[in-house]
Design goal:
heterodimer; A: about 110 residues; mainly beta; 6-stranded mixed sheet; 5-stranded antiparallel sheet; 11 strands; B: about 110 residues; 7-stranded mixed sheet; about 0% helix
Chain lengths: ~110, ~110
């Protein structure tokens, strides 16, 4: 049972436009959500996170939105840059030290 | 500050063999978690160690085991390797067991033939 789902395996966006990556979860006990970025041959890098008590968190070009009623979160990247091309994973945890990751979305930013 | 290091980076084994992977966390980090990454499955949690104690375990068979040493370095062992164990094994460290920010190493690519 996949508790965290990223239904789009890939996404292509033009440089300078907005990239929107989506993530759905099923476990209402999750109280913290994270986004990681992964380049080939490297481990995932922490990008941004959000607590379940918030509905938005912003860090520079990256904004994460959380819709608890829909059990949905999204990552917005504005403006998108070619260096943003990577695989993005969302993850969720309920504080039990166990992280559940999605299957990832490969973002390609076209110059 | 040095990041998380994993050795070896690449490994080829045959079915039935066993393998040990090593992870050195960031200095000062006491929690180490292990993940398996396969195409289409994302990152699947294996286990987490904090202060030499296993704090949590994912849904993997007993062939997968781990341990943590007093210097926080961790090893993961897989016995009786199967073809399906071919994957990228990632280690992540964090300061505290309850810390939400994990820092990942580059991974060990294991190929079982």
């Amino acid at each position: 049972d996949q508790q965290v789902k990223q239904n789009s395996p890939s996404l292509s966006v033009q440089e300078g436009r907005i990239s929107i990556l989506n993530c759905d979860y099923t476990n209402s006990m999750f109280d913290y959500f994270l986004w990681y970025k992964k380049y080939p041959a490297e481990g995932p890098t922490f990008l941004i996170s959000i607590s379940s008590i918030k509905d938005k968190n912003e860090d520079g070009r990256f904004t994460v939105f959380l819709n608890k009623s829909a059990k949905h979160l999204s990552l917005h990247i504005v403006p998108s840059q070619p260096g943003d091309s990577a695989v993005y994973f969302c993850a969720a945890t309920s504080g039990t030290y166990k992280y559940i990751f999605g299957t990832g979305t490969r973002l390609k930013v076209l110059a | 500050k040095a990041g998380v290091t994993q050795t070896p980076r690449y490994l080829i084994k045959t079915r039935g063999q066993q393998v040990t992977l090593s992870c050195s966390p960031i200095s000062g980090h006491r929690s180490v978690s292990w993940y398996q990454q396969t195409p289409g499955q994302g990152l699947q949690f294996l286990f987490e160690y904090f202060s030499e104690t296993q704090r949590n375990k994912g849904n993997f068979p007993g062939r997968f085991s781990g341990r943590q040493f007093s210097n926080s370095r961790s090893e993961m062992n897989v016995s009786t390797l199967e073809l399906g164990d071919s994957a990228l094994y990632l280690c992540a460290s964090s300061k505290q067991s309850s810390s939400y920010e994990q820092y990942f190493g580059p991974g060990t690519r294991l190929t079982v033939t």
